[in-house]
Each structure stands twice: as C-alpha cells, then as structure tokens.
Design brief:
Blueprint (H helix, E strand, L loop, with lengths): L6 E7 L3 E10 L2 E11 L3 E3 L2 E4 L1 H19 L5 E6 L4 E4 L9 E2 L9 H8 L2 H8 L8 H11 L1 H4 L4 E4 H10 L4 E2 H5 L4 E2 L4 E2 L1 H6 L10 E2 L4 E4 L2 H7 L6 E3 L5 H7 L13 E6 L2 E8 L6 H5 L3 E4 L5 E8 L2 H12 L6 H9 L21 H11 L8 H27 L5 E5 L6 H11 L3 E3 L4 H13 L6 H11 L3 E3 L4 H14 L6
Parallel strand pairs: 1-6, 6-15, 10-13, 16-20, 20-21
Antiparallel strand pairs: 1-2, 2-3, 4-5, 5-8, 7-9, 11-12, 14-15, 16-17, 17-19, 18-19, 21-22
Helix pairs in contact: 10-17, 12-15, 13-15, 15-16
C-alpha cells in the first residue's frame, strides 16, 4: 500500500510529561513532528498522591485541536501509550470512583506481604509471570480490599490508564494486551485475565474488559469529541502497544531476516533501563522468579522478558546538583570529563536502594564508596565515571542472569531511547558485555506507536517491514567491544565491592 498519503498522531504520555507527535511518510521514510508537549505531574493532597486524569484528557483534546490548526481535519488514526500499572475504576454510570492514584502513593506500603499470605508468591508468578514490585496494579487493588473495601461495592469497570483515555475518545471499553500484562493480573500463557488470582484477591472478574491486541482499531472518534476538536468523524482510534516500553521495543531496528527472536537483546535506556529479549512465549520458571524477571506483552502477542534496572537517573541527579551550584555542563562535556578520568577507581551498585531518591545524589555516591573502604570520587569526571562504569557493570550482572535463564548467548544488543545518545555508556556496555551494539532510535516509543498504528491500518504488511522502516528512516549507531580483558578484571573487583546477593 502507498504510505505517503498517510498521517497518524501518537500520544506518548509518561510519568512526567506527555507529547503529541505526528507521523507521516515521505518517500517511504517515516518523518516525525512533535506537535505539542505538556507536563504530567502527580498531585499531592494531604498524604496521598494522584494523577489528574481529566487534565491529561484535556491536553489530548488540545493537541487534537492544534493538529487541525496545523494539518487540517483529516487524520488517519490516533494512538496512545503511557506508563504501566496505574488504573481507573468506574461505577455503573461510567463515572470515576474517587481520584486516580499515582503508583508512588504510599498506600501500597506493606501490602505485598499481606497479599502473599493470601495468595502464595509462586502461584501469582506461575499465572502472571510478572516481577514483584509494590507499584503493581495487583498490590494497589489489594490495598483497597484491605483498607477501603466498601469502595469496591461501587465498581463496575477496571481500565488501565491508556484504556480509559481510549474510552474517553471512543466510548468503547477494552483492555490492550501489553498494558494489561503490567497489572500482575493477566495470564500471558492463556492471554486472558488471571481470573483465579483475581477471585482469590476478592475482586470481581466482571470488572475486567475484553483483551485486544496491538494494531486493533477500537472505533472512530466519538462524535462529540470530533465536533469539539473539529476532526473528521471517520478519524480512527487504534491501539499501539499501549505500554510505552512495549511501543519502544516494537521499534527496535533489528533485521528479522538475520536474527531470530531470542538471538538479540535490547536496553530501553533512559531514567530507568529495561534490559531484556523478545520471545514467542512467556518464560515462567524458578530462575525467572528467583532473579525477578518479568514477562510483559509485546508486538504480535510476543513476550518481552526483561528486568527493570537503574538507568541514567543517578547522573541526571548529579547534573541537576552541579547546575544548581552554577557548574553547568552539557552531556557531551560530562562524558568527556568521565572519559578523561582514571578507569576502575570506584565501584558502585547503581541499583542499591540508597540511590533510589537521596536528598543529595553526589553525597550518596561518595558515602557509598567511603562505607565500602574505597577511595571517594570528588571531581565531576570521577563521579560521572563511577556512575557510567557502575551502570555498565550492572548491565553485565543482569545480562549474565538473562543468558542463564535463556540458556543461550545474545548475538547483538540494541540500545534504544534517549539514553542511546550517551556514547561513553554505549562503549562501556559493549566492552563489558563483549557484544556488538547498535544504538537508536532516540524516539523509539513514539516511532513504535506510530508504526503499529500503520500496521493495524494495513499500511505496513509485517513487523519485519516495520523494523526495516525504522532502520531506513533513522540514524543507527554502532559500537564494538574493546579492552575486554581489562573490563573483565574490573568486573571481578566490582563484584567484591557490592552486596550483589541482595539483588
């Protein structure tokens, strides 16, 4: 099909901001136009933390109006991706029951222990394959079961955040596969809700909507919405992978004629790093449970076997502190200072809880080294080098576990997302993993969102073609291993300094 007369709009909404990005094809290459960006911050009321979900919807409608002002009323499709785990509860009139909680709200503290007494950990993992985190939808819901059960008497519908936004656009309730898997209430083997777990948690199975897969056209834009924003009434709302990481992994520029699923790995790199592989089926066994890997939904009903690990959060926080002190450097200048510092002087476990949200990240790094009998990094270059090497070592630690679970070596690693611009970390990662690395695209989530919409509308014939388009449309970097023996020796020293058995 001719793609050059085709235009879609992707909403990529994260936990700090949202963006509306227009995707068009010019000479069979995908072009992006960031139309609008808006803040998306949690709202604190007394001791609780919420999302302003209706403000998000208002920003979506504002984006649609801006689209009409720029491009006219014709639009082939709209697709929404967001962060995972959070949800909306609706009553019999489809009205929201109470405010919509933020995953960082403290009501989940200590709830996991109560849930695991009710339903054993092994049973939950066997049926969902999802890693255990206090932010999971299952934990959030069980906090209501324990502390506010009368609220549940009003519930008629459960919708994940992007599913609810799609409902507001179309008045159709459905649950997209990739976002549903993040709930820890979905069975990836049966590809349906984990009804046995749901019932054991004293939840009502009728709340949970029909599962639809990425590329599914939900419906045309609801008439009142189309009239308000002045879009054509035949504008479709199509499910991308509604989980943002799912959309990002869909855009990995792998040559699927050369590499089979399981042969290649990826890191979705940003504030957090998500390291994993794309598999045909979930991998649920004692090793994945022991190492706390997770089976989330991917393109074509595949599974993203991955682990959440620390990303560039530490260096972002350090830079924020340096800027506050008036020492303002670009990311390129920080990388240069790191590369000019002595290697392998400091060893930090970037996943240690002390780095989760300390008052002062630089001091936390220095204290970590001091408390373990190491020299203390002082300069910008030394601190930056400690963080970047620490991230590379942590990637190796997780990569080894992943290969142990799979029983095979990965032939190549793809680094996508904003973190793929950090050339020092990319090279360090190639060195410590001893695999070739390809980097980019930076805008992987929006690209995946747009191209899965195109796939669903028949403008793209296959996932293989989708990934060919990514390679042909965006610059892809390459890194090859260097100084492998030095990095292996340093990794041995790293393991001596961290309490890796806790992870």
């Amino acid at each position: 099909m001719d793609k050059n007369d085709f235009r879609v709009l992707a909403f990529d909404i994260g936990a700090s901001s949202g963006r509306a990005i227009v995707g068009t094809f010019v000479d069979n290459q995908l072009k992006l136009d960031e139309l609008y960006r808006f803040p998306n911050e949690g709202v604190r009321i007394f001791d609780s933390f919420y999302w302003d979900i209706l403000k998000i919807f208002q920003e979506i409608k504002k984006s649609l109006s801006l689209y009409v002002n720029t491009y006219g009323s014709q639009l082939d499709s709209i697709g929404i991706d967001t962060w995972g785990v959070d949800f909306v509860l609706l009553d019999e009139n489809d009205e929201i029951i109470g405010p919509v909680y933020h995953y960082r709200d403290k009501r989940t503290e200590g709830i996991m222990e109560h849930l695991l007494k009710k339903v054993p950990k092994e049973v939950i993992f066997e049926q969902t394959g999802i890693q255990f985190m206090p932010i999971n939808s299952s934990i959030q819901l069980y906090s209501i079961v324990l502390n506010n059960p009368e609220k549940l008497n009003l519930v008629k519908s459960f919708l994940m955040i992007p599913d609810y936004l799609n409902f507001l656009l179309t008045k159709v309730k459905a649950s997209e596969y990739s976002i549903a898997t993040t709930s820890q209430l979905f069975n990836p083997i049966k590809k349906s809700w984990a009804y046995e777990i749901i019932q054991k948690m004293n939840l009502n199975p009728t709340w949970f909507q029909k599962i639809v897969f990425p590329g599914t056209i939900i419906k045309e834009l609801y008439e009142s919405v189309a009239n308000e924003v002045k879009l054509d009434k035949d504008t479709k709302v199509t499910n991308p992978l509604c989980h943002d990481t799912g959309s990002a992994v869909a855009a990995v520029p792998v040559d699927m004629k050369k590499y089979k699923r399981g042969d290649w790995a990826y890191i979705s790199s940003g504030t957090w790093s998500l390291l994993g592989v794309e598999l045909e089926k979930p991998l649920i066994n004692n090793k994945t449970l022991e190492y706390n890997f997770t089976n989330e939904g991917g393109i074509e009903g595949t599974i993203r076997l991955l682990k959440n690990i620390s990303g560039l959060w530490l260096i972002q926080e350090c830079r924020r502190l340096w800027n506050r002190e008036g020492v303002k450097f670009t990311w390129e200048e920080i990388e240069e200072k790191a590369l000019n510092s002595q290697p392998f002087e400091y060893f930090i476990n970037t996943d240690d809880p002390v780095f989760l949200n300390p008052p002062n990240m630089i001091k936390a790094i220095q204290d970590y080294c001091r408390n373990r009998g190491q020299e203390v990094p002082k300069t910008i270059g030394e601190v930056s080098r400690a963080v970047l090497e620490g991230l590379a070592f942590r990637y190796r630690f997780t990569f080894d576990k992943l290969e142990e679970i799979l029983g095979q070596k990965s032939k190549i690693l793809y680094i996508i997302g904003g973190g793929s611009q950090n050339s020092a970390l990319n090279q360090f990662t190639a060195n410590i993993l001893n695999v070739p690395i390809k980097t980019g695209p930076i805008e992987a989530t929006a690209i995946g969102n747009i191209l899965v919409q195109a796939l669903g509308l028949g403008k793209i014939e296959s996932v293989s073609e989708l990934r060919d388009i990514v390679r042909n449309s965006f610059e892809i970097g390459e890194y090859f291993p260097k100084d492998i023996e030095d990095w292996n020796n340093a990794y041995t020293n790293y393991l001596k300094f961290i309490q890796s058995k806790s992870y």
